[in-house]
């Protein structure tokens, strides 16, 4: 079950690195604007600084999770589990905040939160 938790947490981290890429690197591209339903280049320009910042939050959650996975893989189970819980749990919490703001974001919240939720469940089953 620990291996499943690490794989799920790793996939969740990859999703969050991708979100970082969209929000912090390619925010102004038309394809990215379509993903986030940003109608105009002016709207994207207006929200660029906010998206840039938010993208880095996603990156930091991924980094914490990956460090936790590395620690788990090298036998440092307590520290690794704590970091995977912190990173993946924060991803789940962020998904809940996203959908609580508007039901229109339910799909995005599901994409953002399902893998880390499964990782938390698998990790709990593995370490209890």
From TrEMBL:
<keyword id="KW-0812">Transmembrane</keyword>
<feature type="transmembrane region" description="Helical">
    <location>
        <begin position="79"/>
        <end position="99"/>
    </location>
</feature>
<feature type="transmembrane region" description="Helical">
    <location>
        <begin position="55"/>
        <end position="73"/>
    </location>
</feature>
<feature type="transmembrane region" description="Helical">
    <location>
        <begin position="106"/>
        <end position="127"/>
    </location>
</feature>
<feature type="transmembrane region" description="Helical">
    <location>
        <begin position="6"/>
        <end position="28"/>
    </location>
</feature>
<dbReference type="Pfam" id="PF06993">
    <property type="entry name" value="DUF1304"/>
</dbReference>
<dbReference type="InterPro" id="IPR009732">
    <property type="entry name" value="DUF1304"/>
</dbReference>
<keyword id="KW-1133">Transmembrane helix</keyword>
<keyword id="KW-0472">Membrane</keyword>
<protein>
    <submittedName>
        <fullName>DUF1304 domain-containing protein</fullName>
    </submittedName>
</protein>
């Amino acid at each position: 079950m620990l291996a499943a938790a690490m794989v799920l947490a790793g996939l969740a981290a990859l999703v969050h690195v991708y979100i970082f890429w969209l929000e912090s690197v390619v925010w102004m591209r038309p394809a990215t604007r379509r993903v986030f339903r940003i109608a105009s280049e002016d709207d994207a320009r207006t929200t660029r600084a906010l998206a840039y910042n938010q993208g880095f939050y996603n990156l930091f959650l991924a980094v914490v999770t990956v460090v936790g996975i590395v620690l788990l893989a090298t036998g440092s189970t307590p520290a690794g589990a704590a970091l995977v819980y912190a990173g993946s749990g924060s991803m789940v919490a962020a998904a809940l905040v996203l959908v609580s703001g508007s039901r229109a974001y339910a799909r995005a919240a599901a994409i953002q939160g399902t893998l880390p939720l499964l990782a938390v469940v698998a990790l709990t089953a593995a370490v209890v």
